[in-house]
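Hey,
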Amino acid sequence: MAEFLFDRMGCAKCGFVGSLLIIVISSFFFNPSLSAHPITQDAGKPRVVLMCLSAHPDDEDGATIAYYTRIRHIKTYETFYTRGEGGQNVIGPELYRELGEIRSEETLAAAKILGGKAYFLGFLDFGYSKTAKETFRVWGGNDNVLQRIVYMIRALQPDVIITNHDTITTLPYRQHGNHQVVGITAYEAFTKAADPTYHPEQFGNGVGPWQVKKLYFRVLRKSELDQDSLVTIPVNMKYHGKTIQQIAWKALKQHRTQGMDKLNFSDLPEVFRQPVYKLILSDRKYPYNPNDLFSGIKPSVRPSGTLPEKYAVALKPFSIFVHPKYSLLKAEGTSHDEFHFKIDTYNHTGSPLYVAAFVNHGRQRVFDEHEELSRAIRDSIVLSVEVPSSSAAADSLVFTCVPLDAKKMPGLGRSTDVARLRRVTAGFDRKDYIGLVGTYDNTLEQTFDEFGVKYQLLDSAMLASGKLNKYTTIVLDIRGYLYRRDLVRYDKRILDYIRNGGNVVCFYNRPPEWNGHLYAPYPIEITEHRVTEETQPVTVLEPENQLFHYPNEILPVDWDGWVQERNIYLPSGDTTLTSSRYHRLLAMSDEDQHEPSTSLLWARYGRGTYIYTSLALYRQVKDLNNGGVKLLFNLISQPRH
């Protein structure tokens, strides 16, 4: 139900209809008679309960959760506001809803190690947000967010709430905007959950007003560790031969789509390795214990509440996701277009499934077959469909899979996904021959295949040989210097190629894998800065540069329709860190901010050219955004010298 509030990238619908939907959804979520799932609370047994609030998967404090579940045997709930679907995926091409599915699986695997129980509030992760104001707007308003977490508190009845987030909304210490909202609503919910006049429609089936005893925020700045009355969690205690810290580290490594399995524990600052908490609110004064969040709280008997299915079911029994999400309509004049797709299936039933798979193009069914899926969680269906050519600029195909075993398995039902068909008016130089250093994302390969761009994937042997001069341009895909250790090893071959007249296009990297190395011809220092508002205006600083004219004219309209963000991990604007030899070609900033004009850098080196771009171009190209594809083709179509 909640997804009706937002479009795919999280732009909140507004006006009367949006307000009406919030009311309708509120009654759906909090009507105790609708698909209510009981919560096991060991009825009749006195107990205390811990709740950890997190904006995204991997934001949980694993060490504190593991300590209280494994050592203290305290019931612990992990409540996540989103499923992390707006983030990056460092192990594959899956993004958006499918990434949310994978991250939910990772979160459940981590929770199993920690001993906690994970729940998801269902808010959309729409990408990096700088402000609580933007997050509240996209999530349907302050009260829409607050009432959901209040309901979870009333149903799960925690005595103590902890979070890694806080209420700071100003620079320099503010966190991600989603994190700010978690901190703000945790603070407000402390009082509201106990207020019988606040959303009384939530009451029933064991759910009523509930007073949390203590709210703690984690201390994440070293400068604040000298405060009085902080609580330090004893993470060196052992459970089955492993320290709590080691258990938490194993759980963190489950978040593979975020690269957590590659982190070096010793590289983390002490504040991340040792949880320390500050008491923010309490319902009364409790005795202080420097190593116990529950000091002074007595176990109590509590009734068993219920949760709506929206919260209680972490993963649907069966889901599908179609690839690619966007396909290219052929030139007008052809009678039919043929498209090739792969349906990724997620089967959490533990049994093989027989499904009826069909595809509709408007009212016409263009595919209809029965398929057998294995008991494995992930499987796939590969298919081709032929549809009449459309004169429309955009079209769509609706994919549906219906498990034929649904009557035998409660909760098992059909799953649907949509693929868009788009017409793109972008050209490229037919003489182009691209050498592609690929990484975990396959957007460039799919795009080159779709448009007929001649390219070759460069493996380690090809990079080592240094025989690269046959390529007009070499493209280094996103985060190449993390994912391709051979690229790091043979980077000198890339620089030699440029010096001899070649062109290199390097897509964004992150500070950890880049800074401190001279991979580019001249120094570039990467920062965490970015422009997250994808509708912000773009200024071309060197309109005469060929990158904006050949083979496509880049027009103001080509910056329209971008998704999620303009750029990410911007190079520093300081010329002592990012060389002045690079031409700064574009300027853009979020509202009331001033970000460096470094999202597209261009420089000559020897007889060739080097381009570094932190534009979120792969998201635009994956969606076949016309302007995004035009700019990509301009970057790769520069002539060799």
